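Researcher: Please predict.
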Amino acid sequence: MTSHGFTLTAQGPFDFADVLRFVGQWPAASTIPSDGRVLRFAYCAEHDWLPIGVSVSGVPGGVAVETSRPAGPAIRHEIARIFSLDVDGRGFEKVGRGDPVLEELRLRSPGLRPVGFWTPWEAACWAVIVQRSSMHVAAKIKRRIAERFGARVVVDDVEHPVFPPPVSLAEADGMGLPAQKEEWIRGLARAALDGVLTAEYLRSVPAEAALADLKGLAGVGPFSAGLILIRGAGAPDAFPGDEPRLFALLREAYGLPEDAAPRDYAKLADGWRPFRSWASFLFRASTYQE
């Protein structure tokens, strides 16, 4: 691809090797196989919904990025968001020191920050596709949708299907999903085109308001809303209202009772402000590292 390069510098700890290890075990990541030193992917940039190929490698204190088309401020900000490099992470160490359980987890991968979906739109579609399915089956379906409805981008001499932009799925059928799920995805596409299902909007309002807006979309429940806001929009300080897998991890780590209510988990997470998303991510990521 024709390369347009720039660098992104982290404020606070960051280790790109930790990112690569996590992404390598994350079925939802639509990445191009690499040599273990470079992360390659392609997506439709949110600010114009046009496809772009991205190649990312680690440099001291940040990442070096090459893109298949010129990367103005909007694209640079999007890629920074994907790797949580748009957030000053220096305060997360202080949060960890105030919680011995979290600190032990943080010290295992001190440079790991939340890694997100390329866009909230793609995160929302994943949340629908994976419902009542395994992550590996959902990943295959998501790729088939990309191959049928998306463009193809060459990244470092490898052609990669790009998950389609909202306009391509707003009226689409034949996605290989149950009719109800396809209708939900068409609705999500309209919400993205209206500017609601975008990082720009979701990061511009308080987390509680963003979660409420997301739960108002057909097919989006409490778990999906948290996924979209935290892993799609990259909101650093949000806590899902209902996520059984995360709650189970917290029960085990903190010795909470089996009948603990959602408010008990929320109270626990209050001690992680303003990095509730980051702390939750470390608990989830720990299951990939075991």
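Model: The first helix runs from residue 16 to 24.
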